[in-house]
Amino acid sequence: MKEHPSQKKYKRQSENHISLALKNLNRVLLRAIMLIALLFISISHHNLIAGEGDEVPPLDHRCIWVTRDVLKSKRTIDDMVNFAIEKNINHLFVQVRGRGDSFYESEFIPRSQILSEGEFDPLAYLLDTAKGKGIKIHAWVNVYVLWSSKSLPNHERHILHMRQEWLDTTQEWPVDVEKQLNMVTVNNNGSEGLFLSPNHPDVNGYLIKVFRELITNYDIDGLHLDYIRYQDAEYGRNPYAIARFKNESGNDPGPWFLEMERSTIASPRLIGNMKRWNNFKRKAVTSLVKDTRALVNEVRPDCIISAAVKPNLYVARERYFQEWNVWLAAGYMDWIVPMNYSPKMREFARNIDVINDNFPKKYRDKIIMGIALYNQEPSEAAEKIKFSRLRQFPGISVFSYNLMIKDPRYSSALDQENY
Predict the structure, then answer these.
(1) Strand pairing partners for 224?
(2) Which end of the chain is more exposed for a tag (fewer CB within 10 A), N or C?
(3) 314 near 354, Cβ under 8 Å?
(4) What is the pLDDT of residues 331-369, one digit of tens each?
(5) Is 87 in contact with 411 (CB distance < 8 Å)?
(6) pLDDT (tens digit, 9 = 90+) per residue, 303-331?
(7) What is the DSSP secondary-structure string of 361-373?
(8) Cα–Cα nearest to 98, from 118, 123, 61, 73
(9) What is the pTM of this model?
(10) Cα distance between residue 80 and residue 226, in whole Å
């Protein structure tokens, strides 16, 4: 992969910035990593808004995300498919695993508690309804995020009840589940809820079992992975994961964590040690992606593997340990879908600059640009669709269908003239 001109500068500066940031509060860490990311961004947008005379190439992949509440009834599924036909959508990312549950029949995963009891299988019905209509169905699964509601899952088979030793943590152990979920409810600390620990020795094997059942039993066109990352930079300290690191490396990272908290300046030795720990965390997520590729090749080779990722490549890698550049270059992913949700055109374009600076065209052709609706006007979203086309991405994905049916103004962003 072509190296960015400032890559050497980044390597010299990023280790110091990141190691120092990790010992401070989340707020400080976020600022530090964002500053690192900005080192790579050279702003040279002469034309941030697409002009009327610009030739805009067509999109091969016209996608929308559909959240799980649409799967509650046959009527809402019918409406979704009809909407896709009307708006010329040819790919639907439909959420079938939200918080450790299922919107399909499973031998070991509990049925979502928002579904009524009965024989209705939402995914099977969707696949049957969309068949022969030019629409590909991607099963959207939330990977490591497990639960975010204040109330605990109703079903006793939910993995949160069965395997609390698999939960990720920053330091606290055992995890105070009630406290963590209350923090999500208050929502002033940025907590997203409870996550599985990516570097726990048993978690990825369990997730591969989840994926195997899904792609074996359902004739899906794609498997779409979301939340395939750590909750934030300071996570990953599940004690079983730490024990695994000790066993594999012969080193105890505990003193490194303590030194980070007490030091005002990160020594070269500490920087090197924390780099080894961070590589261990990053490798755990990439291992799941690699194993998913092998699974799909074995069971359903025509299935498209995609992932929704943090849009800035450097922030994704250093803060969330989501090295999606590696996933793409190694062939583990067919598509990458950066969630480029900023309402500001300049920031939206900056994230695209980072992609263009780091990927040759053969990889950019596998990137579907993700665009949000919830935080901007329909006309602004339409401009970002057009801008993505001008930058020659092969497709876009819009978040989300659910908002478009609540506010029909937003469906204008998908009108034919925008394609």
Answers:
(1) 140, 306
(2) N
(3) yes
(4) 999 999 999 999 999 999 999 999 999 999 899 999 999
(5) yes
(6) 999 999 999 999 999 999 999 999 999 99
(7) HHHHTTBEEEEES
(8) 123
(9) 0.88
(10) 21
